[in-house]
Amino acid sequence: MLDAARQASRWQPEHHGARLRLVECLIYCAETGLAIEELATLESTQVAPDTLQAIAQMYLRCARITDAARCHEKAVTLQPGFAPYLFNLASSCVALGEHQRAEALFDAVIERDPEDTAAWLSRSLLRPATQASNNTSGMTALLSHLSPGDTAQIPLCYALAKEFEDMGEHEQSFAFLERGARARRASLAYRVENDIAAIDQIKKSFDARAMAGAADPDPDESSTFVLGLPRSGTTLVERILACHSEVGSLGEVNNFAFSLMKLAAGPGSKLDLIARSATLPFAKLGQLYRHSAASLCERRRVINKTPENYLFLGLIRLALPGARIVHLRRHPLDSCFAMYKTLFRMGYPFSYSLADLGRYYVAYHGLMTHWREVMPDGFFEVDYETLVLSPEAASRDLVAHCGLNWEDACLDVHRKTSPSATAGAAQVRRPLHQTSVQRWRAYSTQLEPLADFLTANGIDCT
């Protein structure tokens, strides 16, 4: 595909669609640096606002949030008042921490298109709702006019759930959340059994015998991976480390997975791919990943904060001996509920059903138990609760694990100005708080079936 895209771009260099397809192929082949160069060249030409939007989306896939924001800004300048462009610019402002401007832009979107329910949700996420200041009446009125099968209700339900939770009205909050999650789940062709089978295959392929072949850790390895289930505190840990003067972050990127696919792609099913990945030239995989990461960050320590990399722990150990790995843990019910109440932009299809969540969590828990057995001392584990209840002690341990000297700046996470495009982008700009600890207890009745299932499978939910 990359070869064909390169040929098309040579034949018609003025064809923006061909150039964008070339960028996409470069990203898939873990050539992120070349992709960014190509985007910069294309952006420098005279392009229409819709092409600027496409360039921005590709920048985001390279974790270049500031570059994407610049393209969104240009598009709005060229076509002022166009609601979709205003929405994208507002989303960029959220990632950049410009929340007042983001709220004003979302207001402008809703004024132009009152039925843009994604804008209602994005605006609700910017700050806590109160009894004196909330958007629930406008959203419930809009929801009453939507048909039961209209997917526009999904973000609206999540927004209402969020605002009612802010105001302490938990039963009403959960009712809207359940409605939104059910509608989202119905829109997906997903079977949790497939993910469970993949996790089982990972455990079989990367058993103790396979992991015994890992090379001795390289003390000069610069890669650091922060991973865990989404909404478990990975963004917080990333930003604690990124406050250090020697550390830079790639953000959430798929560079490791793309490097893997470059070597392991071939015929057969996903399970065949997993089995084949255990026979790769691991040194080559490490070289491919380092090459892709080097184009994004030049600091001494480079963080990859992609939560799902827990699936690749065996490969990371084999391909990058000496890489620092930090795994985030959180109370099972707080973890599951935090995922359940998040409308993710993409990924995590298991999070829209408590039944799916329970089964996936059990499989994830089993995988992490497996990694501890076959990789003793192979990664550092941080409990979210410890991190927010004893931030300095936990942060010092974290920084020491990464082989760094302590810097007081690591405690000033909310003051860090670097962009964040994760689901918790609004929260990371606020001072560290403990309000999310044990939040599941306000919904103990609704979550009881999930708690019973997890407990029956050996997971402590007390």
Query: Would you list the SSEs in sequence order as H and E?
Result: HHHHHHHHHHHHHEHEHHHEHEHHEHHH
The total count of helices amounts to 23
Helix content: 55-70%
Q: What is the β-strand count?
A: 5
Q: What Rg, in angstroms, do the CA atoms define?
A: 22 Å
Sheet having the most strands? 5 strands, parallel
Strand content: under 5%
Structure, described:
By secondary structure, the chain is mostly helical. It has 23 helices and five strands. Strands 2-3-1-4-5 form a five-stranded parallel β-sheet. It is globular. The chain starts with a helix and ends in a 6-residue tail after the last helix. The model has no long low-confidence stretch (mean pLDDT 93).
Short recap of the structure:
The chain has helices spanning 2-11, 16-28, 32-43, 49-61, 65-78, 83-96, 99-112, 117-124, 136-144, 153-166, 170-186, 192-205, 208-211, 234-242, 255-264, 270-277, 282-294, 313-319, 332-340, 354-374, 384-389, 391-401, 448-456, and strands at residues 223-227, 247-249, 301-304, 324-329, 380-383.
What descriptors fit this protein?
23 helices; 462 residues; 5 strands; five-stranded parallel sheet; single chain; mainly alpha; globular
